[in-house]
Amino acid sequence: MSSIYEITERHEEPVLKPITDADVKGDERRWRRGMVPVAAGESTKADGTPDYGIFGPDTVVWEVFTNPAMVIFHHAAQKLAQDVYLPIQGAVRDYEPLSKKARAGVFTLFDAMERVTRGAGMHVPLWLGDTPTAEHMAAWLHKIHTPLKGDVMDPGQPELGGYDAVGPRESLWATYTEMHPMLCAYEAFAFNGWRPPKKLPAWKRDMFIDESSKYAILHGADPAEVPHSMAELDALYAKYAKFFQHSDTVQNQLDTGESMLELQNKVGKKNWDKTQMKALKVIYFVILGMELPMLGALPREYRLAHGLSPAKATWAAIAAKLFLPVAWVLQRRFVERKWIRTLWGPDGARLIEHAREVRAQYLAEHPDALTAPRGV
Q1: Where is the chain membrane-spanning (predicted)?
Q2: pTM (2 d.p.)
Q3: How far is CA 284 from CA 67, 72, 112, 288, in A?
């Protein structure tokens, strides 16, 4: 299930204290749940062949995710997509630890920063771990998401019904509001050396969606409904269009009617001290500072669902193009070295680097891989 639903296992209230650089960096406990992740290819299957997990070096998913652009851009892409899927936002309002902390009066920007960096990083073992690692994390996520159910996803539109974080519908969209934005960010911003970003050929885009179906099914999506091509994904967007929209009421708490976003803002200001600027810098770098160009990278339907007018939606697409020189700089190795550990955690950074090495070796041995659709 998508990381935006995640509930912490530790229930003690945080102690409000000055934030240090070590706090911002964190340790493996921020991301790791249970077993130490085993990287794809570090173990073998029963038949003695390497265990590459759900995906592997011959997949488009690895081509996309192992690109340096994903270190910086994945977080914003996923968040902006999930911000307009109402069932997810209903669960965030009712169950998200940040919401609980806001109601308790202890929410801080450091909490928000931890949440932003922890969420995506916890999913790297699913993408780049071996099969037992992926299955372990999927089972853990399913367990903690099982209680996340509610009768009302949006108080302003009760006719839309409720949500169930481990139900087939939410499992489906938790996956594709994570994977499709990943592909969009790659196509908009990922440089390959000096070669500028470009849209993948149609067959590769279809392969990416087809490969993602394994991930969706592992999380609980209905195998009969998961898409296997971009056309099938587009049809699902049309089928579930009423759940993808801007809403002024989805964050209104069911008991008080107060907006959770306004409450977080109020409590965050109350608990502000100058050391929280360390957390704000990370939030700005990975989310706020690239919001407009990232919206421009997403499909137009997402931009309109965010409440942008048609003119502003067009401007966002232009902003994505104008952002390319900045995107190129952000993908340089000296930038990545500075941010990969903070944004993905020690396990995530290790898995990403290992997957890049495995993929490079595989492509050297199979130079024709990913040059044509499978079976051609």
Answers
A1: 279-298, 313-330
A2: 0.93
A3: 22, 12, 11, 4
